[in-house]
Amino acid sequence: MSLNLDIEGAVATITIDRPEQRNAFSSDMWQAFAAACETIASTPTVRVTVLRGAGGSFSAGGDFDDFAALTSLTERQAYLREVLAAYVAYERLPMPTVAVVDGIAVGGGCELAIVSDIVVATERARFGLPEGKVGLYPGVAVARAQGRISPRLLDYLIYTGRFVDGETARDGCIVTITAESSELAETVRSLVSDIAAQAPLALAAAKRTAMAQRAAGSYQVTAEDIPILMTTADHAEGLAAFVEGRSPTFEGC
Predict the structure, then answer these.
(1) φ and ψ at 151, to 5 degrees?
(2) What 3-state DSSP class applies to 225?
(3) CATH classification of 3-180, choosing from 3.90.226.10, 3.40.50.10260, 3.40.50.10490, 3.30.450.20?
(4) What is the pLDDT of residues 2-35, one digit of tens each?
C-alpha cells in the first residue's frame, strides 16, 4: 500500500508511504486518501488526525506521470475534481489535523501542510510551490492562503519556485512548531495528547466555523483554471524539461 491508515484509540495516523517517488500521490492514492478521511470521520473515537510521510519525505505532491497520461480536457477536469475532493475530505475532518513534515513538502505536499490545522517541521523540512516550472500554479494554496499564511511568503514561493526551510516556513505561518529530528516523536506525542484531552464537540464546532470562514467553494476557480493550463504548450514543455533534467523554455502559449 502507498497510503496507510492506522487508528489507535483517539489518534488516527495517515502515512504517505511511497518513498521511492518521494511520496508523490498517484491518482489511486488521492482516492485512497479521500477514503481514509471518510473512515476517520465516521470513527467516533478519533479526536486528532496525524498526517506524515515515510522514508525521509513528507510529499512531493501529485505524480507527474499521471499529469502526462491525461490527454483531453475532460480527463484533466476529472483528475482535478478527484484531487480537490481529497483535499476537501481532509479539510472537513471533524477533528484537528496535524501534519508532521520531516523532509520535502513541495507542490501538493506543501498544500497538504497549508490546509492542516497544525504543522510540525524539523530542520530537514523543505517547503516549496514550484508548479510554475511545469506551467501550472498551486490552486489549493492560493485558495486557502487568506488568513492562514503570509501572503508575502506565498508570493515568494509561487513566483520563484524556490524552497524554504522549516524556520522560514514558521515565520511565514505555514509551520506551527519546529522540532529537532531527535525530538520529533516526543513533540508530536505531547501535542497529540494535549489535543485529545480537549472537549471534542467544542473542537469540532471550532473547525466548522473555521471552514465556513474559508469558503470551501473557492476551489471552483482552481477546478476550472488548472485543467486548461494542462492543455498548454508550456505545461508540456515543463513536464518534458523535468523528465529530461533541463531548464524549460516557456513561450507563453
Answers:
(1) -65, -30
(2) helix
(3) 3.90.226.10
(4) 999 999 999 999 999 999 999 999 999 999 999 9
User: Is residue 215 very low, low, confident or very high in pLDDT (cuts 50, 70, 90)?
Assistant: low
Residues contacting 44, CB < 8 A, separation 6+: none
Per-residue CA distances from 12 to 48, 76, 82, 116, 237 (Å): 6, 32, 23, 14, 40
pLDDT of residue 221: 76
Q: What share of the chain is helix, strand, coil (3-state, %, to 5)?
A: 55, 15, 30
Burial of 195 (0-12, 13-18, 19+ CB in 10 A): buried
State the cell numbers at 112: 497538504
* Alpha-carbon span 237 to 70, nearest angstrom: 15
User: How many whole angstroms separate alpha carbon 172 and alpha carbon 162?
Assistant: 14
Nearest Cα neighbor of 98 from 194, 231, 180 is: 194
Q: How far apart are CA 77 and CA 45, in angstroms?
A: 36
List, for residues 119-138, the tens digit of each pLDDT value.
999 999 999 999 999 999 99
